[in-house]
Every structure is written in C-alpha cells, then in structure tokens.
Amino acid sequence: MNRLAIRFLFTAVAIAATIPTARAQMGKTVSVNAGTPEDKALSEIYAAPDGPEKIALLDKFMADFGKGDLELLADQLYAGTYVAQKNYAKAYEYGEKALKLDPDNLSTAITLVHAAEEQGDTANLFESAEHANAIVTRYKASPPPAGMSKENWEQQKQGVLRGAQDDISYLQNATFNAAYKLTDSKSRAAYMERFAKDFPDSPYTLNAREQVAFSQEQARNYPKMMEAAQAVLAADPNNVDMLVLLADFWSEQGQQLEKAGDCAQKAIDILSKQQKPEGADEAQWQEQVSMQKGLAYTALGQVYVNQTFNVQAVNAFRQAAPLLKPNPISYARNQYRLGFTLAKMQKIPEARAALTEAASIDSPYRALAQQTLAKIGTGATHTTKKPS
Fold it and tell me: 4-181 has which CATH code?
C-alpha cells in the first residue's frame, strides 16, 4: 500500500518561499561618493526598469568604472537584473563572477538561490544554498578584525546575523520546498537527507528526516526506510509519524510483532493526549489525529491477527474503521482485514458485511475481498493465510 500521500498531507507543510527584500551585509560593502559620475550613473541604473535599457546602462557603467569594488557592484546588479528578466544563464554567469570577487557575499549567493528556485533547478538551488550557508557559517566563526575587541565583534556579528535571518530562512525554505516537490522518491529521499545534513538546526530538519523515511518507503527501499525512521525515533522517541510507520510496516510484513504492537499502542496513547498546536486549524488537526490513530489501530489489529488473538484484532479493526473512512484505500484495507478475521472466527454475516464494503471500494483490496467472499460462499473459511 502506498501510504506516502497520506503522511505527506499531515507531516510536511511546504510554505511558499519568498525572496527577502532587505538584506544584512555579509561580504564587502561598496560605497560611492554622492555627486560623483559613478553616483550619477548608478542612480540612472537603479531608476531604469529591468529590461534592455538597464543592461545597456550597466554595460556603459562597466566600460567607464568597472574596476575593483565597482566591478563587484556591477556584477551583482547584472545578476539581479537577469533574474528579473528570467535569463538564468546570464544570472548565474554574473553571480559567479561576483562571488569570485567576493566569495563571502551573501547577497549574491541568495540571488543565485532565487534564480535556481524560479527556474525549478533543484541541483543548482542546493548548490547555491549550500554556498550561502557556508558564508553564514564562516561569518559566525570569524575572528574580530584587528583593533576590535572580541566582545564588540560578537555584538556586531549578532546584529548582522539578526538582520540576515530573512535570508537564512528563505534559503532553507526554498531548498526544503524544492526537495519536497520532487516526484521521484529516490531523488526526494537523497535531497531531504542532504537538507538535514546541510541545515541541522533548521525548523524544517525534523520534517526532512521524516520525509527521508517516507520517500524510502515509496521507493520500496525498506532497509533505508527503517534506518531513517529509527534515527528519527532515537532523537524523538514520541514521534507519532515514525511510530505509526514502523508499526504499520512490521505488522503488515508479520515481522517484529512485539515492537510493532508497542509502537502502535504508544502512538495511540500519545495521540489521545496530544493538544492542538497554537494556530493550527481545528478541522485539519482533528483529521490528522484521526487518520494517524486509525493507522495505529489497524496496525495493532494486524499484530493481533499474526498472534492469532482474533477477538482483540476485531476490536482494533472496529476502532480503526470510522477513523480511516475519509481515506478509501486505508479504509478498504482495514475492512478487508476485519472481514477476513471475522470469517476465520466463523462470524459469517459480519464477515460478509465487512468484505462487501471492502469490495465496493476501488482499491488494491477489492480483489482480495472478493476472493474471500467467494470462499465464504463455498464454505471454505478455514484458511491459514493472514490478511495483508
């Protein structure tokens, strides 16, 4: 069963990323004296729309003044103008020129992140974001300039870092969203893992680590899925998403049944006490809790089936049913499991009702439910095969 879509709905919130409009300075500060020819030329450039006219003015500025720090400034302006024109090849060209002149220029690195995000180029986006993140990391570790006390330098750095927070949040948001939108599960897992490594302290890092597990599940790389899920639980033993993921997988495979039951029950206990986060939509929160609890109950029921505790299994499946009903595939699976277990218990009318409901839903469990209904009709109900 593909449970990835269900979990993505509740465990990842891809927030629309917007490039910051004001930036703190990391890297060289280029100053131009007021009233000079350079100042006049720059005023005309800033006033021009982001089109051929601005590029022509920049070409003239470079020809007249494009040396030293003014070359750096012109390259930055070229890069920003070409992003606005959606000429991404030129934006990268001039952004890279600017970074060669000033490798610690955060503003330019963020411009390249923006270009890659607009272009939908995940590889370039990650590379640019990692460059920007390296600039921030180096700045945090930088020693005070000559003649400045360590205390004053730390105060100044904290001010610059506070001013750069919009940039830092933007590049993390843009990178996470780019990875989240990937449709290839293997690529999504790889980029989410890369994100978690690049930004270990990001608000999105836990979510990224969860997405590694979900993406590996979709890719059917179950050893990697389990490794990722258990790594999350090692850091956060009460992570409901990972508890449900492992309980569901192990119970369906008939493996690690004691652990599967413990994970499912722990998830149910946590969800029963969990409070809605401040600001969360009430209806969405209740939908999330119900779905997670339903998945935990159906996993617990499947554990009981594997342990031949049929009465307990039926009770768990019945508790799961109303919670899973909004999701047809999960609901169909649960009703098939319920009907199969009831058939084994010779409770034929109840089994037929559950199986008929499962067979009425377009899901991978329709054919299984129909087969079991046919066996009930012929009296062949004593099968040892367990429901999936």
Answer: 1.25.40
